[in-house]
User: What shape does this take?
Amino acid sequence: MSQPTSSHSSLTEAFSGWPPPVLDPHGPFSNTVTSLAWVLIALVTLIFVLVCAAMWVALYGSDGLRAKLGGVGVVKWFGLIVPAGVLFLLLAWGTTLVAGMTTIKGDELRMRVSGNIYWWRVSYLDAAGNETHADANELHIPVGRPVVVDMVSEDVIHSFWVPKLGGKMDMIPGRTNRLKLQADKAGVYGGQCAEFCGGAHSLMGFVVVAHEPADWQRWHDARLAPPQRLQAAPAGAPVSDEVLRGSQLFREVGCAACHRVAGTSAQGLSGPDLTHVGSRQSLGAGILPNTRGTMMGWIGDSQSIKPNNRMPAYRSLEAAELNALAAYMESLK
Amino acid sequence: MTRGVPSGVAGAVADAATAPSETGFDAQLYERFPTKGRRPRGELEALKKVWETPTGWRALSAVNNNFIGFLFIVTAFGFFVAAGILSLVMRVQLAAPLAGIVPQETYNQLFTMHGSVMMFLFAVPAVEAIAVLLLPQMIGARDLPFPRLSAYSYWAYLIGGVVFFCSIFFSLAPSGGWFMYPPLSSGVYAKGINADFWLLGIGFIEISAIAGAIELIVGVLRTRAPGMTLAKMPVYAWAVLIFGVMIILAFPAMIMVTFLLELERAFNWPLFDATRGGDPLLYQHLFWFFGHPDVYIIFIPASAMVSAMIVTVAQKPLVGHEIVVLALIATGFISFGVWAHHMFTVGLPGLSAGYFSAASMAVAIPAGAQVFAWIATLASGKVQRNVPSLFLVGGILIFVMGGLTGVMVGMVAFDGQAHDTYFVVAHFHYVLIGSMVFPLFAGFYYWTPMINGQQLSERIGRWVFWLNFVGVHVCFLPMHLSGLMGMPRRVDTYLPGRAMEVPNLISTVGAFIMAAGVLLFLIDAIRCYGRQGNVGGNARNAYKGGTLEWLATGNYGVRSIPVVNDLEPLWADARLRQDVEAGRYFLPGSTTGARETLITSSSRAEPQYVQIMPGPSWWPLLAALFTAGFFLLLTVKALVLSGICGVLTVICVMRWVWSNDRHIPQKQVDAGAGILLPTYVTGPQSHGWWAAVLLVIVLGMIFLMALFSYLYLFGAHPDWWRVAAPRGALVPGLLLLGASAGLACAARPLMALLKRGSGLSAGSMTLSMVCLVAALAVDVLDWWNAGLRGDASGQGATIFAMWAWHGTIVVAVVLSAFYYLARWMRGLAPAPANKTLEALRILFIYAAMEGAAGLLLPRVLPWGGL
Assistant: This one.
């Protein structure tokens, strides 16, 4: 599988602002917007330089030049007629661009992402729109195939944005919006909430992982297979004591009230699904690399890392307990 | 243009010969001006005495536009500085990743307050304040037509604004962003009273803006100097007119949306709650239907200030004057069709996104025309090198940059990337700073000699300009980049290692450079204005301006009101200043011993009558205090005390308008050169009638927004329309409302025709009120018995909200009916016509029509039950 091994460096790279993601496209939709952006940047720079030149002439030009500039004709031509023409052409082109980007054919891969106060619920859908499996804060997509993502919200308005792959789409309670995504290259792409959604809005990120199509199919098939879990397969592969202790703690501390681990009794739905948390790139919705240490820190005191997120801090847990819980999380691939 | 004609008089007479008179006024009478001979001894002293501003602590009861206008500007600028300080704290927090300068919640309050204060407490009030100060001077009026209303709107704004701002010091400030989208701002996600404070602060500015707009529209249309036809009216007066009209059409959406949000928060009516048939997008549509025109409400008067100053610094008339006026009108018009460009990412259908994109592009065209008119004007003259011209040129360049990035984000596809990022933050700061803040600074330098006869320091001014100009670019230019780098707006921090550090640090440095510029300006302004407390002004024409505000003025405005026939009357007629000061034109003194100004016709500015103006009064201030008490106590849920304040507000307002409708002994007075004009006029000729009509338009627009909300939710979530419309109230309700309107209508002819008309008018107005109340009761009972509840569904919420609004109108009608009864009992409602009745019957007839619309719509749509 094409899971990048060193999640830390790829995560940093995924979210890096340089080169600017809007100008560094990795998919056909963002590609189009980037071309448009460059045309616009060139055009507005040119116009600005012309205005500056006109202003310079008005203030410092020779009398002859100033006399030419100081008439109603200039206002009519440069203030009305030329701008109207330029804007008309721009608009005509822009409208055709949008049309190509939003058309949905019906054979795309389907997913649903629902915004929650500071994290994202991710569902993989079949052609009929039924959920096949769930995840959180991470989308896995095949390279070269368009994905249509249904955008919904479970609380306030959020906005889903992966700058390297294309424009953003708001998630509005009571509505379903659709965004078309496509990556042209395997890799990890950073995304984040763009609409202010309260307290920790600034720390509400996610990643999109694009796999080669064959890899993605293998990954997807594996996800569809019934999960092999501690309780379901007691005689299975050897499990370390630490993981076992972690799974007990998971039940005792009450994690299951909010979190779901498929194949176990943990079926809470108000927090992120942890069935595959061990294989995730990031923690805390795109803000930390997923390592044993960060996981311990997150469970022990997520409030100091991401203030006002909905998960309470478990400051009473001891280091060994945190370690065991983190080990259990790590085992949930 | 009649350049070369020695005086405005000859031009005005010639001009009048080309068009029929609007009012029957004989333009030949203008030829009596300037009058010959000396004015009577003591006339000027008497005029001064009449217009004297109270001194000491009594100064707070002053209502003159130059006093109130000046305080208004100082207060607005104070909020600019205060909101600027908030932004400095924000910039320090963002200077480095994960900086812990302020906690997350505080940061969220900071940016919410920065935006809200800048938009609602600085930008709109500042342009309004300048209009209050400048407009009467520029069009030759002694004061605005409703001085006490200006005083009230100022005090309400000051008190409400200060209380709202102070919420930040107690962590009670709202934290949902300046547009406060629900559900984030709803009772579920914004517990506590922080969001209510926002609604309170906004409520005040709504009142203040509407009051100001009505006053300014009537001011422009009815108090221009004789001869100043629409074609001869300064661009700035046009802009104030358009500003007023836009406020009247746009603010109602804001009033309704804040009203609905407060209803949802207070009574749990699910207007924006998608789980019960409300819709968060309804809020966004209403908010931006106000919000986008609001930008132009700020821009249009500020750009006309630029036009006014450009003419002076170039010492040439504005090139393309007509094009500029048309551009302003076009901007105002188009700006109502672009609101959804703030919503390109909410999932609009492609066609409507295309339409809004096109309209957004179109609005760039009139802006471009103005920019080239300014450049052409500068080119046509020899530009004076001074601080105003620096700020003008700098402002134009900054504005052009903001306008161009505006074209970029107007493209739907690009906006998908730029929306809600720092790119947009950069865009609108460039637009607003270039189009409003820089012209404002230019205006401070340019008009200071008009206000206090002195100049701000040219030397320090250059520093102020360069610090601000450099600061703007250092602060906001990198934000375009940080936006393209993926930085969303409204983030209290960002993570390290994402390359965001450098642009953010540069922006922070830029913010402090600007702050240094503003600080330097403040020091100079305090030095200049502190030296001499007098704000009366003597209009030293330091920059050689050509418009009427450069005539020497006192509290009474100009000594005599000239006949005007030129866009730059002072340039056209070198003797004008002298003649005006010598009292050789209209109203050289006070003919009635009261404050007066000349009311002229709306289009051709022909003299119609002499308005007797109210003088200093404590009632507007007290009314504002109690209004503040009413809203504040309501916010903290002290209902009884709040109710008491409400009643006191009503009493104060009634007391203040009580003496406005005055009959004076002289039916006609000599307005100058033996021209006799009436002192008391009713009906469409009277400026009070105009104000009443404008107020009713505002009320109608607000109700229209309520009807829109009903239709929107019905269209979006018809499955929540679960209560079949009851028909029982239909016939009795409509009959009652018909009777109500009919009685109000009949009150005037009854009064004019019959002997005991005065009493009959009072009786029929009272009956009209009773019918209106009964109709509302019938309507409410009908639905209540059918099982409709406000908190159950979108259907219930919108219908209840309509009643809540209509209910406040009904309360106003009830109070007005008692007010009129009281006047009749005191013999102050004389036949055959009085202004109070004229104004009130307009309100009563409107209320009946509103009731009918509210009765019909929910019963007609959906038709045939469910």
Summary: Chain B has a mean pLDDT of 93. Strands of chain B lie at 553-554, 557-558, 595-600, 607-613, 668-670, 676-678.
